[in-house]
Amino acid sequence: MNQFTFTGREKMVLMFFMALGAICLAATYFVEPATMVVMNHGHEETVSTHHMRFWSNFLQNVVFFLGMAFTAMFGYCAFITAYGGWFSGMKRLWEAYALWMGVGLIMMLILIAGVWMHWHHLYHWNAHGVTDINDPHYDEIIAGKAPFLNKYWYTFATLICVGVYVFITMRIRSLSVAEDNGVKGDYSYHNKMRGWMAAFLPWGAFTSAILIWQWMMSVDAHWYSTMYAWNVTASFFVGLLSMTVLMLIYLKSRGYFVYVTENHMHDIGKYLFGFSVFWTYTWFSQYMLIWYSNNGEETIYFLTRRDQYPILFYGNLVLNFALPFLILIRNSSKRKFGTIGLVAAITFFGHWFDMFYLIKPGALINIAGSNDAATALGSVTGYALPGLLELGTFLGFTAMFIYFTFSKLSEAALAPTNDPYIGESVTHHVI
Q: How much is the pLDDT for 109?
């Protein structure tokens, strides 16, 4: 079967989980207390939570799925530009993923509005008075970063950079579909696609780091790492590969993608294995480089997470390095759908868990006002570990992403019959 049919039963199941996610996300807005009592310099102080649990959950999930959509288009462009024929048979899946960036941009508008209207306090750099030297809340470090960490950069970098991603993605998608309706052997559509892809790669490589710094790293505004964007992008890509494995296994069980074989899964498994190791390298490198250079204001980022959030800190390594490394290091494991499906499920959750690890401790510090005050709060539900509401929100976003993917898959043939490399993809074999 070369035309995907999105069944009513699938829609019903996905809509149920979307509703569950919406309820769980809304619940985090109301169940978190409006204020918390913290110890500040030995004195009790009441601080507002600003519904931080809701906003940090929203940021975590929006960025995670938007990041996967971006890496889908970046990987798609890289494979095709490098004449990667093995990938052509399943490119429709990554096209569908990449189109999610339009939805992600709409969701980012909510976060942008929150920055301007002060609906949330995810970012300390956006607090009143932190850049005014005459204000008692003045923060010298943040004031030094103010030319980059400000609401104007946050807004226009997001709109322009992601807007260009969406525009190029839609152009590539339209050319890809038009190629199906063209004449076999006519490479004009493919050549135009390659031109747009060649433009996307340098633009995406440069600007994605800026967005990651703005959206995620600036939650901990006093800290920075030159490895951070590499680490987060690797996390997005492994999440994408995991979703791809799980989706292909499901679609093949329904009779689709019959030409995607254990040979293709073997190659995806190698990417999954390799980038799990690369993620671990970047994760450890940013810790090691800061630690042995003895930068105290930067080391505190890791000290806080290691000492106050040990389950997040070490659990991250177990889920995203130890398990995929030990299971996939055996060559045959990458060819067994059951085994690679298990690893994909672990790493898909694991890299969502990584987003939680990256965002939540900093969000709690922004509530408390200092690292010491946040430490004194102890284990706060929804910050020290994902609670049931966080897991429900994750399921809701996942269902929405899959619903969107299935809708886009149904709009075009699954096998791009006029793609110049479809024959190479169908006959792909790995020894």
A: 98
